[in-house]
Amino acid sequence: MISRKRLTFAGAATVALATVALTGCSASGSTDGSTDAAQADPTSLTLALVPSQDQGALVDTAKPLTDMLTKALGIPVTGVVSKDYQAAVEAMGAGQAQIGFLPSLQLWQASDMYGASVVLQTERNGNITYPAQFMTNNPDKYCDDKPVERDGKLFCNGADALKGPAGLDSISKIKDGVKVAMLGPGSPAGYIYPVLALQEAGIDTDNDISALPVTANDASVLAVYNGDAEVGFSFWDARDIVKSDKPDVGQKVVVFALSDEIPNDGVALTKDLSPALQDKITKALEDYSNTPEGSKELTAIYSITKLAPADPGSLDVVARAADKLGLK
Q1: Confidence (pTM)
Q2: How far apart are CA 253 and CA 251, in angstroms?
């Protein structure tokens, strides 16, 4: 179950891009010491990122984004990487972060639980949805046909179409204690959609498989690559994250099934920010994504090629999937 208990965002488990106090700057009060009825916007902002890849790599690559926001907004913006997906939501609810780059379920939760505004959603190569992928190092077991190569990576069971669902008949073979690398329950692609697909295929996910918990999508790929797990879940195509270090990952890790399509991740802003500042942040991010430099930086952070106005209603499908697993 995903707990709604407020989590501490700061601490040893959180990797920061810079040393910051996550409570941020308090609003300005009146000269007589009382608090103004309408609080002023903060004089600094914290941007929460979730660890969809190695935290150290995210620390190194996200600074150009916060530097851009600092310049565009005229106030310091500091990025932090939460210890898990849910911690980023709770940080926004606690006022410890004002901007969140969040997966689809967490966008919905930030809006539903804490009144955050979902302002932008991502595009990846023109797509506004993506599938979760099932990966294996044992294609002879899971592939009903000969794997085919696309862009230097192997797929089977029709997964080379790059659109879900595909190959889901094959996931019934994930049983008898097969070790499966999976992210925490807050991850749509690393947990929610694959686990739901397994359950709908008649797999008892508590007893038929042996879960290997991992903290990020690249770790799931590496668990399969290194033989620590026979099957792994991740977003499509997380193999690209580790390709520079493991050039043969596309050959050793074969994608044999794709889940139903999942709405893309995006950007949420806390309700405590004024409409004017929310508009300014939204415009700065969207404009940045439309520049060659910005698209390159966002691709490095989260494989984002563009940020576009959000459709909050599209997130309901993820909330319903999570509800089926008792995660809401």
Answers
A1: 0.77
A2: 6
